[in-house]
Design brief:
about 325 residues; alpha/beta; 6-stranded mixed sheet; binds adenosine-5'-triphosphate; ABC_transporter-like_ATP-bd
Amino acid sequence: MTTATTTATTTADAAARPALVELDDVSKYYGTVRALEGVSLEVHAGEITCVLGDNGAGKSTLIKIVAGLHQHDAGTFRIEGDEVSLAGPREALDRGIATVYQDLAVVPLMPVWRNFFLGSEPRKGRGLFKRLDVGLMRETTRSALLRMGIDLRDVDQPIGTLSGGERQSVAIARAVHFGAKVLVLDEPTAALGVKQSGVVLKYVAAARDAGLGVVLITHNPHHAYLVGDRFVLLKRGTMAGSHLKDGITLDELTRQMAGGSELEALRHELERESVSPAPVSAASGPAGSVSAASVSAGSVSAASVSADVSGYSKEAAPNRVE
Ligand SMILES: Nc1ncnc2c1ncn2[C@@H]1O[C@H](COP(=O)(O)OP(=O)(O)OP(=O)(O)O)[C@@H](O)[C@H]1O
């Protein structure tokens, strides 16, 4: 068989395989609160599906369904083609879905290798002489990290002494080592600076290259676009867009994420205020209103403006000039 034929066959095989995870028209309600409605996404081996949304968009709820913490109320959740409703996180793990939360569950004073094996410690010896196989854990941790390109100074150091980015990287390597098929990452770069975010994204890409299907939850379109293959935009629990990388530019993704026309309206409003500022007295505006003194048009970035600007009424603006 020629190389071209082999490649074509492999691609056809991949296309024929069901998605590792597929949500189809999924909804979730907390009492009367609609947290998710009609949300669909696919996660494939060797791909990164990014789920983007502002605060309250439903990202955590989506993670909880995929991680087995909550059950969906409507729609279909499939894992490798099987329709499921996971009974708990253990079942998600057994089906190969590992979730790395932003506030990682680590024991800060324990060494990196001990945290790496937490809950799955190998033992050696028999009967009364059975004890933890420290040498194996230490060596395995070191080599598993190196395989992902993570070169820690010392796997004996307490995990609490690592930077936030390093801790996220160790958690990613751990999921890969323990055979996860799907890696769900809950805003792994949210609390990190630019450089550390880049490092973590590199390991997210390494997990993809190791053949995992990755779900990257983020509110940062720049981070998503750097590594993502698919983009699902959530807004107040509903789908605001679903795109393949080929089908959307970074600018468009950012625009959709920021609320497009709503952001435009806000910018227009703020620009007017910065051109003709009215005197602002400390007591002139109602508590919580937006003032030109505290927010200048230039200091409001697309990402920092909530998609919901409907609460910013003209009447409430303290120094609006007509
Ligand atoms: N346990 C709950 N009970 C009632 N309402 C909830 C519960 N959890 C979430 N919600 C509501 O569901 C909606 C989606 O919340 P969710 O936490 O999934 O959003 P999110 O995108 O993760 O937000 P954030 O980025 O702020 O964490 C919100 O309106 C939220 O208030």
